[in-house]
């Protein structure tokens, strides 16, 4: 009879633990990337009435109750929701973001609600530094060492002088001789100052177009090699000559900066490297510029961040001049047994002998998941299931309480009848 008390008491403790697990899940239903837990029980046989087998071949033992065998974590994927923060990231698939706390200890998290601290480091809400592979000269080198991701706050990228430009346009073949068409393009000198390079095309009596150019209204030199500075078209309205066109601005008009020869790409380039169709046509339709491109830009300061849409975890710096530069690539860690990880709080996990050592690499490799930028993984708690588990645990607690009440009443009757 005394053993019955401890048996029922173990049931109360197990039910209480179950309520605790369920309550924790419900409390974290809105916690970013929270992984719900469940509870597993095991029976206890500490008492035996002997080892003799009964006639049916079974041993004669009375169980001593129940114990908590394990509280496994459900690492199932949570839903991904869009975030308004450009520094947010979510993992789609297997893996953990790698972070380091102030003591230098490695911690792992699924929560990508990152921000930038005063020193420019990408950090978690509790200040752990996010780890990745730093870019070198605009690319992520293979085999780079893991380091804290640092945002280049206050950086200014140098301007790039325009060296070539492409203008795709049509010149109306029905226009009369003497018709003039302008094709202005914004270009940049060595100091990043913008200028207007205007290519002027005047139709000649023979159907060709005389090319002249100005930079901010000042005459520029036209160089087409050995050919005359005229655009020549065949009977189908396709460009045949010249094959090269360079515009050389007057350097004395640049206030100490330089803007050397600007190459105009007259023809497209085929995949095999050969010359393709011309970028300028002479069809019987309105003269118009379809597109403009040039390779220069002004100096620019950092204005924002973005995470690669290719889901490879590359973090880009966005500058005021429209340029985008890679900063680093976020790293992901996987474990032989993620169930063996230690919950350390703050949405983080720690390595244990049961989990094995982390395998760290770039997203999308070695079975690792992908990273979705400007998104956050939601908790995978199923509220409906949790409420069901809550009812089951409550009923179990009540039933074990009833066992204790029954034993108490039985003992009372026994004492009264002695």
Describe what you observe in this structure.
There is one protein chain. By secondary structure, the chain is mainly β. It folds into 3 domains: 111 residues, no CATH class; 151 residues, no CATH class; 131 residues, Sandwich (Tick-borne Encephalitis virus Glycoprotein, domain 1), CATH 2.60.98. Helix content is 14%, strand content 39%. The protein has 2 helices and 35 strands. The strands form 8 sheets. Strands 7, 8, 11, 12, 13, 27, 28, 29, 30, 31, 32 and 33 form a 12-stranded antiparallel beta sheet that branches. Helix 1 runs antiparallel to helix 2. The longest helix has 34 residues. The chain is elongated and about 135 Å long. The two termini are 16 Å apart. The model has no long low-confidence stretch (mean pLDDT 92).
The number of strands is: 35
Q: What number is the mean pLDDT?
A: 92
Could you tell me how far the N terminus lies from the C terminus, measured between alpha carbons in angstroms? 16 Å
Q: For the report, how would you describe the main beta sheet?
A: 12 strands, antiparallel
Look at the helices and sheets and give the structural class.
Answer: mainly beta
């Amino acid at each position: 009879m005394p053993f019955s008390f401890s048996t029922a008491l173990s049931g109360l403790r197990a039910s209480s633990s179950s309520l605790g697990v369920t309550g924790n899940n419900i409390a974290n239903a809105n916690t970013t990337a929270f992984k719900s837990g469940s509870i597993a029980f095991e029976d206890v046989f500490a008492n035996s009435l002997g080892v003799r087998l009964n006639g049916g071949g079974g041993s004669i033992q009375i169980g001593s109750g129940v114990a908590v065998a394990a509280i496994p974590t459900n690492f199932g994927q949570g839903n991904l929701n869009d975030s308004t923060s450009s520094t947010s990231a979510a993992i789609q698939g297997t893996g953990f973001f790698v972070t380091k706390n102030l003591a230098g200890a490695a911690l792992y998290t699924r929560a990508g609600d990152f921000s930038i601290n005063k020193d420019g480091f990408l950090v978690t809400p509790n200040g752990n530094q996010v780890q990745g592979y730093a870019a070198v000269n605009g690319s992520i080198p293979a085999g780079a060492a893991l380091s804290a991701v640092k945002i280049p706050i206050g950086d200014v990228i140098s301007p790039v002088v325009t060296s070539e430009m492409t203008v795709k346009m049509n010149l109306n073949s029905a226009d009369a001789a003497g018709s003039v068409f302008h094709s202005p393009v914004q270009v940049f000198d060595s100091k990043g100052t913008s200028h207007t390079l205007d290519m002027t095309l005047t139709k000649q009596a023979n159907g060709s177009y005389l090319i002249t150019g100005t930079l901010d209204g000042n005459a520029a030199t036209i160089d087409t090699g050995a050919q005359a500075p005229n655009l020549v078209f065949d009977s189908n309205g396709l460009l045949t000559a010249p094959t090269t066109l360079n515009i050389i601005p007057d350097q004395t008009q640049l206030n100490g900066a330089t803007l050397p020869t600007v190459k105009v790409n007259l023809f497209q380039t085929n995949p095999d490297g050969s010359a393709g169709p011309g970028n300028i046509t002479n069809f019987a339709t309105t003269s118009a510029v379809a597109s403009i491109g040039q390779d220069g830009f002004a100096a620019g300061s950092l204005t924002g961040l973005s995470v690669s849409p290719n889901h490879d975890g590359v973090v880009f710096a966005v500058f005021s001049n429209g340029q985008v530069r890679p900063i680093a690539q976020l790293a992901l860690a996987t474990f032989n047994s993620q169930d063996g990880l230690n919950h350390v709080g703050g949405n983080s996990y720690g390595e244990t002998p049961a989990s094995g050592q982390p395998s760290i690499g770039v997203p999308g490799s070695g079975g690792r998941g992908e990273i979705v930028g400007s998104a956050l993984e939601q908790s995978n708690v199923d509220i409906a299931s949790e409420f069901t588990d809550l009812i089951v645990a409550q009923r179990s607690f009540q039933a074990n309480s009833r066992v204790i009440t029954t034993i108490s009443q039985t003992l009372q009757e026994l004492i009264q009848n002695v």
